[in-house]
């Protein structure tokens, strides 16, 4: 049973060896693991919003993370936009 869920609309792209898929929706929740040997992993589902499964025209990827890994990813992601923008702007000014 899912402990909580959030489904924000997002804009991005996913890449695999075969294709690139637009990302329009994300689901984030705690649930029973499918493959990860962890009690209650954080699961992130990213999809193109069609709800038609995987592959061309219906892209979806699911990620299972341990709680520790989820917190590490959150910490890394929190500061990344500000650092990236600062580096981009400093490079643009120095050109």
Write up what this structure looks like:
By secondary structure, the protein is α+β, with helices and mostly antiparallel strands. The protein is 29% helix and 34% strand. The protein has one helix and five strands, in the order βββββα. Strands 1, 2, 3, 4 and 5 form a five-stranded antiparallel sheet that branches. The model has no long low-confidence stretch (mean pLDDT 78).
Could you list some keywords that capture this structure?
single chain; 95 residues; alpha+beta; five-stranded antiparallel β-sheet; 5 strands; 29% helix; 34% strand
Q: In a nutshell, what does this entry contain?
A:
The chain has one helix at residues 67-94, and strands spanning 5-6, 9-15, 20-30, 42-47, 60-65. The protein is of the alpha+beta class.
Order of H and E elements: EEEEEH
> Can you count the beta strands?
5
Residue share in helix: 25-40%
Count of helical stretches: 1
Structural class of the helix and strand makeup? alpha+beta
Distance between the termini: 53 Å
Largest sheet: 5 strands, antiparallel
Overall average residue pLDDT: 78
Percent in strands: 25-35%
Poorly predicted runs are: none
Overall outline: globular
Gyration radius from CA atoms, angstroms? 16 Å
Draw up the topology in text.
Blueprint lengths: L4 E2 L2 E7 L4 E11 L11 E6 L12 E6 L1 H28 L1
Antiparallel strand pairs: 1-3, 2-3, 3-4, 4-5
């Amino acid at each position: 049973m899912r402990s909580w869920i959030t489904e924000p609309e997002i804009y991005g792209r996913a890449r695999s060896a075969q294709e690139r898929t637009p990302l329009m929706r994300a689901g984030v929740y705690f649930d029973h693991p499918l493959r990860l040997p962890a009690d209650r992993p954080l699961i992130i589902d990213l999809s193109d919003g069609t709800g038609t499964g995987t592959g061309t025209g219906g892209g979806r990827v699911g990620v299972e993370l341990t709680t520790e890994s989820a917190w590490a990813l959150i910490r890394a992601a929190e500061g990344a936009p500000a650092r990236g923008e600062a580096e981009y702007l400093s490079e643009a000014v120095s050109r």
